[in-house]
Hints:
Elements: E1 4-7, E2 13-17, H1 20-33, H2 43-58, H3 66-78, H4 81-88
Amino acid sequence: MNVHYISDQFGNKTAAVIPIQEWNELQLKLEALDLDENGNIPEWHKDVLNERIAYYNENPNSFLDAFSTLEEIEKELWVTPLSFYLYQK
């Protein structure tokens, strides 16, 4: 990041100036975080997570652990007709 600092007469940094393109990129990243004005996770997001946790607690056998899930994904990726064809060459 190309930052220019503005200092007071004592050498204390009092401001930072960055190119507008970098500022716009930072703004997009902040918006993507979807935090409220205080920097907290919004209530609607907490509600979604609580619903998912409740569903898991009621149906623990309907979920796979992370390692099993990755293993299933890898199996699906490697058994596609294209990968089978490429593997045969």
